[in-house]
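Hi L., both proteins are below.
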Amino acid sequence: MSRFSLIISIVPHDRGEKLTKAAVDAGCGGGSVLMGRGLAKSNFGAILGTGENKKDLIYIVVESEKKALIVNEIRNATKNEKTDFGELFTLDVDSLIKAGTAFAGAMDSSMSDSKGEENMKANDRDMITVIVNKGYADDVMFAARKAGATGGTVINARGTAREDDAKFFGVHIVPEKEMLVIVVEPEKKQAVLSAINEVKCLKEPGMGIAFTNKVSDFTMLGKQK
């Protein structure tokens, strides 16, 4: 088990501060709020142009021993919000640099909580991250939905390749990027990845990449159904 965890929450735009305040009250040092774009949960909705809205993505790195307390505090802070207000999940952090000091991520096995680990497995999901040239995230999401994914969140980004790199490799590199984050049940991961792999825009070198991470503690924020 890692000494540190990354808590990621996705909620409507301008509501991220509510979560960071709850996390700070529970003992963490703060977090970072990124602005993204939520995509429609169905291809029909996407065609009609409905279901898209601005999102806040909150990244909070905490000691793993504090994770459960902070997650519960965030859940409690959003329990009176609408159903499916947002979602929360966690990732292990292998290493951390803080205030100029590097920390190893591994935790002594004697400190692990077997019951807590069993509970995490029950809420495991897979996070699929796709980075593509700007304008193609919706095409990727369209294919992912057909394979069983629901919604996704897009963050604007930029590539770091230099102009000389593009000339050297003979590939036209577009600096503006979109990062698409999709969270799916483990049994759907391979089907969604296969569908993404068939998207035309990813068939050309330099157009984009996709990778996955195991996530734990997945929970929907807001009123429970």
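That was the first. Here is the second:
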Amino acid sequence: MFKTFLSIIINMANVIKLRKGLDINLKGKATSNKIKVNPSKEYALVPEDFIGLIPKVVVKEGDMVKAGDALFVNKKFPEVGFASPVSGTVTSVLRGERRKLLCVKVQPDSKQDYRDFEVKETASLDGKAVVDLLLKAGIFGYINQLPYAVSATPDVLPKAIFVSAFRDMPLAANFDVELEGEEEVFQTGLTALSKIEKTYLGINPSQASGALSNMKDVEITVFDGPCPAGNVGVQINHLSPVNKGEVVWTVDPTTVLFIGRLFSTGKVDLSRTIALAGSEMESPCYAKVLVGQPLKDVLKGKLADNGKVRIINGNPLTGRKTDLDGYVGGHTSEITAIPEGNETNEMLGWIMPRFNQFSVNRSYFSWLMGKNKEYTLDTRVKGGERHMIMSGEYDRVIPMDIYPEYLIKAIITGDIDKMEQLGIYEVAPEDFALAEFVDSSKLELQRIVREGLDMLRKENA
């Protein structure tokens, strides 16, 4: 009886209850149905998917590459390469203005050939051996770091590593669907990361009784609360805040699978299961794809034919606008499609009662419909940029121990000392996604935070 009671207390100690936040219930959530997308005639790796990277191409048109060979590297840290998802022939090194590298395209072989990195027993390795293998295999760059929310560099090891195993942004993919059948691979990836430094795994209450709750070599914490409880930055803020001079690594759960496959098979396998979601998807579902696969192949026959559609590489709040000429990104966990809304005409505009429009402040009557109502939202801002009002609306949706409105003001004014004092080292642009959604001033908060982080990174270089 006493042991049972003690176990309950221990479990309760690993639960963090968050009250701040906002769940936005959008129409078009992906069902658990999985489809397999046919192999494409061309794949492309896009440097823009890896924030903070200055890419240097290490291949040229006509080169033959194996899956796992580097296509480009980090110019400042050449040991950090980015692996080709397929074997084949390099067909194009596409550049934009001022010779900015846009992507490297590879035409795949009919039979795939993988670079052999040999199967490794993680239990016998130390942290340096793990990092060296990730660098050699071109997967290390998929790890991000705080401060600055950029692709990690191997010159400074972290004080801790964080993995958030759940996503709670609107229409985000459920990682549990991707994890099915790969629990052992995920465990291998976590064990490898734990050899580098102490690793934290964040899960939600619904995962507390599943396979994720039994993972070893990590410290598991349940985060119970509304969006953005799944943001790894929020979890870091509550477990091990980042101070000046400190570094933590953040790893997407799919990247943990990439790492686990590398150690289990000795091969680079960048396949992932993404959600195809949104009100403009014919049948929202999950699709097995490869990083770098063209969206025109992934979305073929999937989009509703009812006018202009916004295709988003990611979720509606933090994703990047794209089109059918885009590619599955290195960190893409969902492709969403919502209405553009630029041809919408509403009688009497804002004065209408609106039962089908979402409102945080009960400006519309839709709040009477209950929390389970699904909304079809478009991309309209519904208002112009205006003066910033200190109303505390950011604070209500950011469950972090910071003063978000003051931090945004410090970034806008370029006050580096204030930015440091107000906690910029522990935030990422995605932590302000909900604040941007509810912001009555219509400011592009994620862009502002990104500019502030870049400013600070340049200053401290």
